[in-house]
Amino acid sequence: MSTPGTLAFVGSLAALALSIGYIADYKTGGAPLQHVTDTVWIATLGIHYKLAVTGLNVMLIGLTTLLFAASTLAANLRSPESALERPRLFFFHFMLAESAVLGAFLAQDLILFVAFFDLMLIPFYFLIGGWGREPDRVKATIKLVIYTLVGSLLMLAAAVATGVLAAQQGGGHITFVLSALHALPLSTGSQEWIFLCFAAAFLVKMPASRCTAGCRTATARCRWRC
Predict the structure, then answer these.
(1) C-alpha dist (Å) from residue 9 to 45, 55, 65, 120, 136
(2) Exposed (0-12), middle (13-18) or buried (19+): which is 67, by Cβ within 10 Å?
(3) Torsion sign, CA atoms 151, 57, 126, 222
(4) What whole-number distance in Å separates Cα of residue 215 and Cα of residue 165?
(5) pLDDT tens column, 71-104
(6) Which residues, at least 6 apart from 35, have a Cβ–Cβ distance to it below 8 Å?
(7) pLDDT-flagged residues of the chain (< 70)
(8) How far apart are CA 125 and CA 131, in angstroms?
(9) What is the pTM of this model?
(10) Phi and psi torsions of 51, nearest 5°
(11) Is the peptide bond before 135 cis (omega within 30 degrees of 0)?
(12) 58: part of which helix (H) or strand (E)?
């Protein structure tokens, strides 16, 4: 293992151990949000840096850390003939990708979730563009950026609309904290078009979507060059 690869693998194991601890410590009959981190991020806009473990994300966190740890190990165990080029840069982007995915699962603020969702685009852009299989990697990278940005714009618009409409109907201060939004239900019409925006944003990353078919091909058939 190279030094960057070893550090990345140790970091992924630490994340896996932490997620196992969260799973073991999760109390099914306890509070809905556990291991909460809540800090005001942008007070004037009601945006919080709020992370928490819930019954919905606790197993997803464990699965994510397990897959990234296994992938990091696999990347480190490649033969010398097919070793990674620029391993320091590769593992930096790989660990950034894991952090962004975990942040999206843990986020309990709608704007924070959108931020982590968009942050995932940066490392995957460089991973596919820098280490993807020729000759499709450039085309796949362009498709990834275009479709994900379009989806992200729809998601951002829906997230902002959710907070604004909820504040108008509730007569209170604008907020994007999910637990607060639960107490401020929107009208049926608003819920429908907001749902469609979020569904479209998620659909472009679904395996069944033709939008990212080239990205999956370039990634799944990745060729690591020395």
Answers:
(1) 38, 27, 11, 19, 29
(2) middle
(3) negative
(4) 36
(5) 999 888 875 655 677 888 999 999 999 999 999 9
(6) 22, 25, 52, 53
(7) 79-83, 134-135, 205-226
(8) 10
(9) 0.84
(10) -120, 145
(11) yes
(12) helix 58-76
